[in-house]
């Protein structure tokens, strides 16, 4: 039996309506499920960083500067009398002992003058002895004896003066050191005050440099210091001087370290990297890879705060060791980010995993 067309149309309309309702309910349920899943997806989306727990430790602090070596003393040795240089027994660059002859002047008439003074002294001694004996017998007055004694003293002084004049022909080293440069050759006429040469003292050796005004207050006389010279040598010593008045141009303070230099092995004028002891204070040892730069260009480390957010602290490198860097600037125990610090920012919440 054939159905009427109106019934077919009605059945189709009802079927379409039922299908629409079913599909709509399925779509609504799917959207609700997605909405409920959003919070969980947000938690999973937090970036993960690896951290290490770094305790705060007391560690020696140091001020690092560029410096140079200098002779502890440099003296131009000059002639005390006039004369022609007769000999130069010490070669340039030689190590000399105190009193060693550097230049010798011609003796000229100085030896004859000394002989004459000694002869006059012997004569005065005899006259004084005779006057004393005659005075004991009543043939000389006390005044005459005193006059002879005065003449004897004057003769002795003349001998001493002639001996000094003769000794002054030897221009000697005033201290142990290196005869660095000779100014006079054989045949050179030296007037009083003219130079024979230059002496320098290299043991102890000075290492000098300039400390920024922000670091000068941290240094104390007697504090330890080490210097790595450009020649590869390393010297150890103590701070002996820190200037109280800054250089008006650079606003820095001169510092001097006295260091032993056995055998004068290190030379004057060498560049050096100098580490000056500045006491002991809190520090943290972090991996080299933990150092980053913030938006302002400051060097520091990123760490995770107790509430799981990223923090940043500027640090100053105190010492570099094979195990890592000793830095100052962090406070208390810190969870330093070692992996992922380049992809997170300050205040950002992160997931934490301990570094392996």
Quick summary of this structure?
The chain has helices spanning 5-44, 110-137, 142-167, and strands at 48-54, 57-78, 83-87, 94-96, 101-105, 170-172, 177-182, 189-190, 195-212, 224-229, 234-242, 252-259, 271-286, 291-293, 299-304, 310-314, 316-321, 324-328, 334-339, 351-354.
Mean pLDDT over the full residue set: 87
Would you report the number of β strands? 20
Q: Quick one: biggest sheet?
A: 6 strands, antiparallel, barrel
From the alpha carbons, calculate the radius of gyration and give it in angstroms: 46 Å
Main sheet: which strands, in order across?
2-9-12-11-10-13
- Alpha plus pi helix count: 3
Low-confidence stretches: 35-43
Order of helical and strand elements: HEEEEEHHEEEEEEEEEEEEEEE
Helix and strand composition category: alpha+beta
How would you describe the shape?
A: rod-shaped
- The CATH level-2 architecture of the domain at 48-59 and 282-354 is identified as Beta Barrel
What does this structure look like?
Pfam families: Beta-barrel_RND_2. Belongs to the membrane fusion protein (MFP) (TC 8.A.1) family. This is Efflux RND transporter periplasmic adaptor subunit. It comes from Phenylobacterium terrae. By secondary structure, the chain is of the alpha+beta class. Among the domains are: 48-59 and 282-354, conserved putative lor/sdh protein from methanococcus maripaludis s2 fold, CATH 2.40.420; 65-70 and 201-279, Efflux pump adaptor protein, beta barrel domain (Elongation Factor Tu (Ef-tu), domain 3, Beta Barrel); 107-167, Helix Hairpins (Orthogonal Bundle), CATH 1.10.287.470. The chain has helices spanning 5-44, 110-137, 142-167; strands spanning 48-54, 57-78, 83-87, 94-96, 101-105, 170-172, 177-182, 189-190, 195-212, 224-229, 234-242, 252-259, 271-286, 291-293, 299-304, 310-314, 316-321, 324-328, 334-339, 351-354. Helix 2 (110-137) runs antiparallel to helix 3. It starts with a helix and ends with a strand.
């Amino acid at each position: 039996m054939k159905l009427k067309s109106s019934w077919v149309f009605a059945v189709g309309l009802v079927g379409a309506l039922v299908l629409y309702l079913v599909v709509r309910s399925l779509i609504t349920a799917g959207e609700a499920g997605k909405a409920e899943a959003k919070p969980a997806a947000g938690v999973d989306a937090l970036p993960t960083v690896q951290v290490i727990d770094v305790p705060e430790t007391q560690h020696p602090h140091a001020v690092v500067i560029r410096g140079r070596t200098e002779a502890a003393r440099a003296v131009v040795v000059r002639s005390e009398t006039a004369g022609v240089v007769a000999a130069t027994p010490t070669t340039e660059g030689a190590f000399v002992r105190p009193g060693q002859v550097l230049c010798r002047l011609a003796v000229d008439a100085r030896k004859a003058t000394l002989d004459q003074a000694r002869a006059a002294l012997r004569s005065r001694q005899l006259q004084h002895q005779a006057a004393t004996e005659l005075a004991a017998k009543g043939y000389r007055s006390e005044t005459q004896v005193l006059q002879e004694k005065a003449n004897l003293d004057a003769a002795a002084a003349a001998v001493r003066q002639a001996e000094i004049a003769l000794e002054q022909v030897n221009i000697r080293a005033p201290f142990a050191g290196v005869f660095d440069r000779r100014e006079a050759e054989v045949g050179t006429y030296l007037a009083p005050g003219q130079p024979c040469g230059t002496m320098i003292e290299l043991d102890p050796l000075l290492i000098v440099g300039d400390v920024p005004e922000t670091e000068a207050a941290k240094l104390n006389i007697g504090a330890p210091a080490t210097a790595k010279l450009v020649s590869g040598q390393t010297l150890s010593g103590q701070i002996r001087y820190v200037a109280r008045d800054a250089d008006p141009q650079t606003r820095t303070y001169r510092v001097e370290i006295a260091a032993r230099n056995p055998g004068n092995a290190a030379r004057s004028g060498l560049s050096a990297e100098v580490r000056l002891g500045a006491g002991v204070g809190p520090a943290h040892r972090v991996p080299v890879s933990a150092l980053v730069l913030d938006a302002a260009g400051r060097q520091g480390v990123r760490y995770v705060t107790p509430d799981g957010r990223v923090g940043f602290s500027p640090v100053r490198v105190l010492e570099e060791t094979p195990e890592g860097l000793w830095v100052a600037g962090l406070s208390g125990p810190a969870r330093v980010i070692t992996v992922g610090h380049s992809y997170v920012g300050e205040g950002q919440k992160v997931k934490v995993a301990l570094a392996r």
